[in-house]
Fold:
Amino acid sequence: MMSPAMRRRLPAVVTATLLVAMIVSGYLRYPKFDGQAIYDLFIDNGFLLVAAIGATFVILSGGIDLSVGAVAGFSTMFAAWLIVRQGWTSWLVILIVLAIGTLAGLLMGAAIHYLEIQPFIVTLAGLFLFRGLCFVIDDNSISIRDPFIAGIAEARFQLPGGTSITLSAFIAIAVLAVAAYVLHYMRFGRQVYALGGSEQSALLMGVPVARTKLAVYAVSGFCSAFAGVLYIFYIQSGDPSIGVGLELDAIAAVVIGGTLLTGGTGTVLGTLLGVLVFGMVKTILNFEGTLSSWWVRIFVGSLLLAFILLQRLMVARKTPAPA
Amino acid sequence: MTEPVLEMKGISKEFSGARALVGVDFRLFPGEIHALMGENGAGKSTLIKVLTGVYHPDAGQVTLDGEVVRITSPLQAQKAGISTVYQEVNLCTNLSVAENVFLGREPRRMGAIHWARMRSDAAQLVRRVGLELDVSAPLGSYPLAIQQLVAIVRAVAISAKVLILDEPTSSLDRSEVEQLFAVMRRLKEQGVAILFVTHFLEQVYEICDRVTILRNGALVGEHMVAELERKRLVQLMIGKALGELEELTEHIRPAVGKAMIRAEGLGRNGAIAPFNLDVHAGEVVGLAGLLGSGRTEVARLLFGADHADSGKVLIDGEPANLRTPNAAIERSIAFCSENRRAEGLVPELSVRENMILALQAARGWTRPLSTEKRDELVARYMKALDIRPSNPDLPVSSLSGGNQQKVLLARWLITQPRLLILDEPTRGIDIGAKTEIQKLVVELSEGGMAVLFISAELEEVLRLSHTIGVLRDRQLVSQIANAPEINADRIMEIIASGAPA
Ligand SMILES: Nc1ncnc2c1ncn2[C@@H]1O[C@H](COP(=O)(O)OP(=O)(O)OP(=O)(O)O)[C@@H](O)[C@H]1O
Ligand SMILES: [Mg+2]
Structure:
């Protein structure tokens, strides 16, 4: 029989196994699949990783955030507009959009907690608001020619074996490390899990529920904006329709990474695995070359379904163990 | 005389028109164990929740250490030195035992949670109440009684000046209760003031110094336990003298004919060793055994809540496939679970909807009950079980703990099952209602219902059962016919020795 602690990690273990299998088969099947392809996973999916980290906080706390993609898209547009049209200093602009994202999350969290509206509804409203604002700024993309942005976008670290990694990918990994530390080693992290376990119990155990909930959505808002900033480094422009559906990809990655949608169980490292699986699906289909990109969605969709079924099974089996 | 560490004066609290507390005074002295008693719905838990800031009182004031305080949240109460175990286990089942014990007070090293120390400290604290647990396993993987002990461990670990225990002993066995009392005595010596809610009179007389009695939200009186007779205490609680339950006249009823339900070699790995068990129509079979001895597991197998690895179930002599609870419900088996919060009531639904749930499920959703029929059934059982307040439209979560338990019982009684499995049906139920429920069980069995009765209270099992099954270490070690010479000590002996009678 499996110990309960092991059973909780089962989805993450399955994901990890799947990832390794995908990488090995990619390596065997495609001659061009080398070490660099692995780094490219991080480079091409850095923004998804950061967005998914924010989503992990929210989902762990028992909530949901649908505004992720819209906030990210808005961040690219607003930053591009400030830098290109208003001539503001680019690093300052980046700080501003990060602050706006955080504030937006905070406000949504406040609406959810104090007005007792479903997170689904509040963040859906946030999605429409920010996506709308994108198009208020401009219908078309605004390309950014800024030395600071270009500098970061092009910064690469050489790694052994002729491979390299971008600064953006590095930043995404740093965000991951910070998030893992916060969730595992800070009291705030424990409070997030407690909240996701049972809000009622958390309250009675003395968890500052209001503060924790607001903070969780603020973290998600911050990560969404951060994902937007990484987009800017990736494509060096602002685009009103960028990040459409990013929230869904992020949620999918979180679930595939073993976090329960009902909250309270999961880790950001699992989320990393989820993002990498997501990226590997894209990579493999790219290498295949002949398949349409919709196969990515279909494959990820099936994977998601499989994982949700797995979770159901685990919850159904949760009869108390012998004392 | 010393000053009270805590004083509540003129506390009133109304819930949308219903008055839960009316001008209640309460005081608590350091180094004293103070019982708070009253019927189900008297307002005990509400008084506690006002004190810890879960509810805000409509009137009244709280004085802590001689200073008037306004406590607005459980967190603030904790910081002010008030530590609480609430009536229902209110911990997070997704977190590990250690995390639950230390949530909000995790030991840290250079700002980071010190996991190794947290685990070893938790293991040590848990050991002090006589438990050996894997503290890194999620709390939800342990049975309710263990969860209740962990809640107590948590409350005790927060070295507080006021410790509040709202029915902490409801799902504990004698030995755990003894452990708890040892802890309480130690804290008392250290000068901690303890507020203790229980429905067990013996516990009050064993450990409490002073008792405050509430009735219908109002203060009845405060007495020294030593100066108060039991009879008088009960009278104060229920407002009248308690009728005694007549002795069961025919204890040993010969088992006539085929068993209504028979388990042959039924077992499940790690839960319960294969056992044979018969329950006849009109018979009450009681299960006795310590915590974790497999009592609940027997019930779950018979109800199809768990899958058996071996053996079979015969109903009226025919093999029956009880793979799911639904199959069992169709065969007229009802199971009133001990865990009302996780497996029983749906808090958002009304009392009426909760009561009707099992019957509706048995009929299938395509054949809804008529409104009149439904209302009549609900009204009948609300009256029979004296569920208060007697308004079936209230959300069940607004009822007191004991009254919620009655709703769960009513849900299964309404289905008029042939086999009724009761797992700790009188947990958290006040002394008056308890006798009522025991009477009801006797009546039902006389009417031909087969009853499997599980309770941590041996006296209760002895009073009601025709046959007693004794469990030990996940094994049904003995089945004996009840007889006048069989008493709690005899059962305890069997449990201890594991030998059949
Ligand atoms: N949240 C609530 N909303 C509405 N009514 C409530 C709420 N909580 C309690 N009540 C009502 O207040 C009264 C007192 O309930 P309380 O839980 O304090 O009783 P109790 O003495 O603890 O009973 P028990 O022994 O059954 O636990 C009951 O009539 C109950 O229905
Ligand atoms: Mg109560």
